[in-house]
Amino acid sequence: MRSIYISLVSEFYKSRKTLAFWAAILLPVVICSLVSFGFYSGADKILKLNAPGMTLWIRYAGATLNVMGILVMPFYVMFMAFSVNNIEHKNDTWKSLFAQPLNKFSIYTAKYLFAVTLIFICLFLFATLTYGFGHLLQVLVPKYTFSQYNPSNFLINSYSKLFLSSLGILSLQFIFSLIWGDFLKPIGIGFVGTIMGIVAGMVNWTYAYLIPYSLPALALQVTQVKKGKDPLDFEIFAREIWVSLIYAGILFIAGYFIVTRKSIK
Amino acid sequence: MSNYAIETVGLNFSFGNQTIVKDLSLQVPRGSIYGFLGPNGAGKTTTIKILLNLLKSPADQVFIFGKEINSNRIATLKKIGALVEQPAIYGHLSGKENLINRCLLLRIAKSKVAEMLALVDLTDAADKKAGKYSLGMKQRLGIALALVSDPELLLLDEPTNGLDPNGIIEIRNLMIELATKHNKTILVSSHLLAEIERTATHVGIINKGQLLFQGTIEELHLLSKPMVEIEVDQIENASAFLVTKGYEIASKTDNRITVPFSSSADSGKLNTLLIQNGFTVSSLSKQRKDLENLFLDITKNN
C-alpha cells in the first residue's frame, strides 16, 4: 500500500504541470461557464417555458450532462489514459520507473488510480459547479426557479453513474496507451469506438451495453426524464454500470501483464 | 559475504529464438570500476537490463552482492543506481524537479537534491527544463538520478555516448572519484576501449553474447606483448642474420623487421649488433599493440 501511495504522489508531482492535469479542472470550468452563460443570456426564452424548479434544474444540468455523457466524457477518458502513459513513453522512462525498488504492480496501479482520481476530480467539479452556478443564476435572474428544488441527489446520482460507467473505457484505453506510445492509434481506435457506441445507442441495439464506449451515454439516458416521473427514480448500479466495472476489473489486470512485458525491450 | 558486487553464473538469455547472452559468467569485484566492453549489439544493454531485473533471468544465474536477483528484486534494486541507454528524464520538469520526483519515489530527503546537483555541476541549471538541457547535461542529470539514493553499485550504460571531449573527461573523473572516495562499485559499458582503459580496474569483453575476456586491466595489457620494430636496409640479409643470432622474427615487411621486446638493454644490443655487421638502422622503436587493436582482435576471432 505504501508503495502505491508513493507512486501516486510521484504521479501527481510529475503531472502537475501538464495539460492532462489541468484539463480535469479547466474542462468543467469552461463547459459549466458556457452553459451557465447560455442560461443567463437566454433567460427570456427559458423563462417563457415557465418550468418548475425540478424541471429547470434537469434542463440546466442535463445540458452539461448530455454533452458530457455522449461525447466529451469518452474523449476525456481517452485523453487521460493517453496522457498518464504518454509521460513515460515520451521520455522513455518506463525502464527507469521499473528499475526502482518498488513493486511493479504498485507502480502500475498508481498510474491507473491517478487517471481515475483525475476523472473523479473532473466530474466532482462538474457536479459542484453545476450546483454553484445554478444558484448564481438564481441570484442574477431572480425570476428563475432554481431555489425551489434541491438538485444535490440528482447531481450526485447522475455524476456517480457517469463516473462508474466511464471506468470500462478507461481500462480499455489504458491498455491501448500502454501498448502504443503514439497519439493516433489509441485515440483513433477510441474515436471509432465512440462513434460505434453512439450509433449503437441511437438505434437502441440490444447489445449496446456490451460496448464500453456507449456505456456513459446509456447510463445517462435517465436524464431524459419523462413527464410526471421522479428523476431520482433510478438505481446507480444498473446493468451498464456493472458491465463497465467488470470491463474495468478484467482489463486492469490484463494491463498489468502487458506493462511488465512491454516496458523493458 | 560474496566478494563480488555482481556475479552471473552461466547466464543465458534469448528473445524468442535469438540468443542474446550465452553462458555469461561476469565477476565484478566490490569497489572496482568494471569496464564492460563490446561492439554495438554485443549484448551489453541486455545484460544491464537483466542486472536490473527489467528482463527476467533464469533462476540462480544472477547474483547481486551475493543475493539471487529474482527472489530479492526490491532489496537488490535498493543498492543499485543505473543509467540505461539514454538518460530517462522528464523533459517537462526541471533538473531539480526530476531529482525531487526520484526522491519522492525512493523516500529520500529532498535536501539530497542540491548536493546531487552540485556533484554533477548542474546547480546553475537546476531550474531549467530538462528537455532543454544539452546532451552532456542530460547525461549528468541521469548520473545524478542514479546516484541520489547513494547506491553501492552503479550501472552506467555508455555514459559518455554523444559527449564532447570535455564531457567525457568530466564523467571519467566523476567515476574515479565515486570509486575511490565513495567506495562505489561501477560497471560501465562502452564500445570504445580507449575510453575505459583510463578508468577501469577490471575489464570484461563481450561479443555476440559471449564473454571473451575477463580480468584486471593489467592482465589485459599482458595479452598485448610489446615488440621492437626495426627499420633497416638489406631486409632479407638482416632478417637471416638475426635468426642466426637466435632472434625470433615476429613479422617482416619491405623495410621493417619486428622482434619480441625483452628489455631496453637488449634492444640496445640488437641495434649495436646490426650496425657492427654493416647494416644501416634508420629507426628502432618499442611497439605495443594498443588495446584498441587487441580489442578488435579479440572480438574479431569470435
What do you see in this structure?
The complex is a heterodimer of chains A (about 260) and B (about 300). Chain A has helices spanning about 1-15, 20-40, 45-50, 55-90, 95-100, 105-140, 150-180, 185-200, 215-220, 240-260. Chain A is mainly alpha-helical and about 260 residues long. Chain A has one domain (about 1-260). In chain A, helix 4 runs antiparallel to helix 8. Chain A is globular. The two termini of chain A are about 30 Å apart. The mean pLDDT of chain A is about 85. Chain B is built from eleven helices and 16 strands. Chain B is of the alpha/beta class. In chain B, helix 3 (about 95-105) crosses helix 4. In chain B, strand 2 (about 10-15) and strand 3 form a beta hairpin. The two termini of chain B are about 35 Å apart. In chain B, about 35% of the residues lie in helices and about 25% in strands. Chain B folds into two domains: about 5-215, 3-Layer(aba) Sandwich (Rossmann fold), CATH 3.40.50.300; about 225-300, 2-Layer Sandwich (Alpha-Beta Plaits). The interface between A and B is medium-sized, with 25 and 31 residues.
Question: Which terms summarize this structure?
Answer:
heterodimer, A: 265 residues, mainly alpha, 10 helices, 0% strand, globular, B: 302 residues, alpha/beta, Rossmann fold, Alpha-Beta Plaits, 2 domains, 6-stranded mixed β-sheet, 4-stranded antiparallel β-sheet, 11 helices, 35% helix, elongated
